[in-house]
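sorry for the late reply, my laptop died twice this morning and i had to redo everyting from scratch. anyway the thing you sent over, i finally got around to it. pasting the sequence first so we're on the same page, its 127 residues, then the predicted structure underneath. double check i copied it right bc i was rushing
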Amino acid sequence: MKKLLVAFLFFVLVFGVSTVFAGEKTVRLNWEQNISSDFLGWDVYRGTVASGPYTYLTRVTYVAGETDHNSDQVIVAPDDTVTIYYFVLISLDTCLNPSPYSNEASIPIDFEAPDAAYSLTITIVTD
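ok and here's the structure:
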Protein backbone atom coordinates (compact mmCIF):
# COMPACT_ATOMS: atom_id res chain seq x y z
CA MET A 1 0.00 0.00 0.00
CA LYS A 2 2.86 2.37 0.81
CA LYS A 3 4.42 1.72 -2.61
CA LEU A 4 1.13 2.61 -4.32
CA LEU A 5 0.85 5.84 -2.32
CA VAL A 6 4.47 6.77 -3.11
CA ALA A 7 3.89 6.06 -6.83
CA PHE A 8 0.73 8.20 -6.82
CA LEU A 9 2.48 11.10 -5.07
CA PHE A 10 5.39 10.84 -7.51
CA PHE A 11 2.94 11.01 -10.44
CA VAL A 12 1.19 14.08 -8.98
CA LEU A 13 4.51 15.83 -8.36
CA VAL A 14 5.82 15.10 -11.85
CA PHE A 15 2.68 15.66 -13.90
CA GLY A 16 0.68 17.96 -11.64
CA VAL A 17 -2.90 17.64 -10.57
CA SER A 18 -4.28 19.81 -13.39
CA THR A 19 -2.99 17.69 -16.29
CA VAL A 20 -5.92 15.72 -17.64
CA PHE A 21 -5.36 13.82 -20.85
CA ALA A 22 -8.11 13.98 -23.44
CA GLY A 23 -7.09 10.74 -25.01
CA GLU A 24 -5.42 10.02 -28.27
CA LYS A 25 -5.99 10.63 -31.93
CA THR A 26 -4.43 8.81 -34.85
CA VAL A 27 -3.31 10.55 -38.03
CA ARG A 28 -2.30 8.79 -41.23
CA LEU A 29 0.57 10.12 -43.32
CA ASN A 30 0.54 9.19 -47.03
CA TRP A 31 3.26 9.92 -49.57
CA GLU A 32 4.77 9.00 -52.92
CA GLN A 33 8.34 7.95 -53.60
CA ASN A 34 10.53 7.10 -56.60
CA ILE A 35 12.07 3.78 -55.54
CA SER A 36 15.68 3.00 -56.44
CA SER A 37 17.31 -0.44 -56.25
CA ASP A 38 19.07 0.38 -52.96
CA PHE A 39 16.08 2.03 -51.28
CA LEU A 40 15.53 1.18 -47.57
CA GLY A 41 12.63 3.32 -46.31
CA TRP A 42 11.70 6.49 -44.48
CA ASP A 43 12.23 8.13 -41.11
CA VAL A 44 9.17 10.00 -39.85
CA TYR A 45 9.60 13.21 -37.85
CA ARG A 46 7.12 15.50 -36.06
CA GLY A 47 7.28 18.99 -34.60
CA THR A 48 4.98 21.62 -33.18
CA VAL A 49 6.66 24.56 -34.93
CA ALA A 50 6.64 25.15 -38.68
CA SER A 51 10.03 24.34 -40.28
CA GLY A 52 11.19 22.45 -37.19
CA PRO A 53 12.83 21.47 -35.02
CA TYR A 54 11.46 17.96 -35.49
CA THR A 55 11.57 14.89 -33.29
CA TYR A 56 12.22 11.43 -34.70
CA LEU A 57 9.16 9.15 -34.40
CA THR A 58 9.71 5.92 -36.32
CA ARG A 59 11.26 4.19 -39.31
CA VAL A 60 9.01 2.80 -42.05
CA THR A 61 10.76 0.07 -44.04
CA TYR A 62 9.97 -0.21 -47.73
CA VAL A 63 8.43 -3.52 -48.81
CA ALA A 64 9.31 -4.44 -52.41
CA GLY A 65 6.39 -4.00 -54.78
CA GLU A 66 4.38 -1.92 -52.31
CA THR A 67 2.79 1.15 -53.88
CA ASP A 68 0.89 2.61 -50.91
CA HIS A 69 3.32 4.37 -48.60
CA ASN A 70 1.87 5.46 -45.27
CA SER A 71 2.37 5.56 -41.53
CA ASP A 72 -0.16 5.90 -38.72
CA GLN A 73 0.94 8.13 -35.85
CA VAL A 74 -0.82 8.28 -32.47
CA ILE A 75 -0.92 11.66 -30.77
CA VAL A 76 -1.71 12.02 -27.06
CA ALA A 77 -2.25 15.53 -25.71
CA PRO A 78 -3.55 17.27 -22.61
CA ASP A 79 -7.19 18.31 -22.53
CA ASP A 80 -8.26 21.77 -23.69
CA THR A 81 -5.57 22.22 -26.32
CA VAL A 82 -5.49 22.69 -30.06
CA THR A 83 -2.02 22.04 -31.44
CA ILE A 84 -0.75 22.14 -35.00
CA TYR A 85 1.57 19.21 -35.70
CA TYR A 86 4.11 19.35 -38.53
CA PHE A 87 5.39 16.15 -40.17
CA VAL A 88 8.31 15.52 -42.52
CA LEU A 89 10.03 12.43 -43.91
CA ILE A 90 13.63 11.58 -44.68
CA SER A 91 14.21 8.88 -47.31
CA LEU A 92 17.05 6.42 -46.71
CA ASP A 93 19.04 4.04 -48.87
CA THR A 94 20.54 0.77 -47.63
CA CYS A 95 23.74 2.60 -46.57
CA LEU A 96 21.53 4.91 -44.44
CA ASN A 97 22.35 7.94 -46.60
CA PRO A 98 19.55 10.43 -45.82
CA SER A 99 17.69 12.62 -48.27
CA PRO A 100 16.81 16.19 -47.39
CA TYR A 101 13.52 16.61 -45.53
CA SER A 102 10.38 16.08 -47.60
CA ASN A 103 7.83 18.83 -47.86
CA GLU A 104 6.20 19.63 -44.56
CA ALA A 105 2.60 18.54 -43.96
CA SER A 106 0.62 19.93 -41.03
CA ILE A 107 -2.65 19.27 -39.27
CA PRO A 108 -4.36 20.90 -36.28
CA ILE A 109 -5.39 18.37 -33.64
CA ASP A 110 -8.27 19.50 -31.42
CA PHE A 111 -8.32 18.17 -27.87
CA GLU A 112 -10.57 20.95 -26.59
CA ALA A 113 -13.52 19.94 -24.49
CA PRO A 114 -16.95 20.73 -25.94
CA ASP A 115 -19.01 23.65 -24.65
CA ALA A 116 -21.19 22.96 -21.63
CA ALA A 117 -24.89 22.29 -22.09
CA TYR A 118 -27.15 25.25 -21.35
CA SER A 119 -30.80 26.17 -20.77
CA LEU A 120 -31.42 23.04 -18.70
CA THR A 121 -35.00 22.93 -17.39
CA ILE A 122 -37.13 20.55 -15.36
CA THR A 123 -40.81 19.82 -16.02
CA ILE A 124 -43.26 17.60 -14.18
CA VAL A 125 -44.79 15.19 -16.69
CA THR A 126 -47.24 13.33 -14.39
CA ASP A 127 -49.18 14.16 -11.20
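The chain has one domain: 20-110.
thats about all i looked at so far, will dig more tmrw
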